[in-house]
Amino acid sequence: WVKQWCKDTTVSDIKEINDFLKEKRRHIKYQEGDVFRFKISRRQYGYGRILLDYNLMRKNKEPFWDIFMMTPLVCSVYHIITEDKNITIDKLKTLKSLPSSIMADNKIFYGEYEIIGNIPLSDNEDYPIMYGSSIAAGEKAVYFQRGKVCKRINNVDQLYIDFSNSAIGFILRFKKDILIKCIKEKSNQPYWDLYYPHFTNCDLRNPKF
């Protein structure tokens, strides 16, 4: 694999690596609605969008079920895999997206995922749904969270299995082979059928629920 990687390396690749070595660490300002580009493979790119900044809600002391580690962003991944670094915002507006998920902001904050524009939020964005019992010591309550909508019912037990859906990582929640299937079928059903069950089975957006 290493020999093949070296064989495929072009002058342009070497320049890109050397330019990267000389860069200073960046701290990128971002906002909800920002569209970003990320590498799927050495030659292929994907595109995503920030739908919600839960850390901003923390700072503003807006009520929500804060069961997240790190600095949580709700992000979506568009139905596209391309070698084109210059896909337009207008083109992306026409594409479907995978179910949004929550990730730490590191790759956006440090500039690895490059922001290329902004699409203002609408009233019909796809947000993860979280439902379950409070994890606060001494608090008996059930929470429901979707986007910025937070509901709490005190002194009751949850009616269904745990749908807290609070998993968070440093990368976008998708797999290339599944994204290819979703693009081909123009549907997110391959995601629900084939992605890791410990994620899809606690997601209330799953069509089987």
Give an overview of the whole structure.
It is a single chain. With 209 residues, the protein is of the alpha+beta class. It contains 8 helices and 8 strands, in the order ααββαβαβαββββααα. The protein has helices at 2-8, 11-22, 54-59, 89-93, 106-109, 176-185, 189-194, 197-200; strands at 34-39, 45-53, 72-77, 101-104, 114-118, 129-133, 141-146, 149-154. A 5-stranded antiparallel sheet has the order 4-3-2-1-5. Strands 6-7-8 form a 3-stranded antiparallel sheet, with no helix packed on it. A hairpin with a 2-residue loop joins strand 7 (141-146) and strand 8. The longest helix has 12 residues, at 11-22. The protein is globular, with a radius of gyration of 19 Å. It starts with a helix and ends in a 9-residue tail after the last helix. The mean pLDDT is 94.
Summarize the structure.
By secondary structure, this protein is of the alpha+beta class. Helix content is 26%, strand content 22%.
Number of strands: 8
Shape: globular
Strand/helix succession: HHEEHEHEHEEEEHHH
Strand content: 15-25%
SSE class: alpha+beta
Question: Mean of residue pLDDT?
Answer: 94
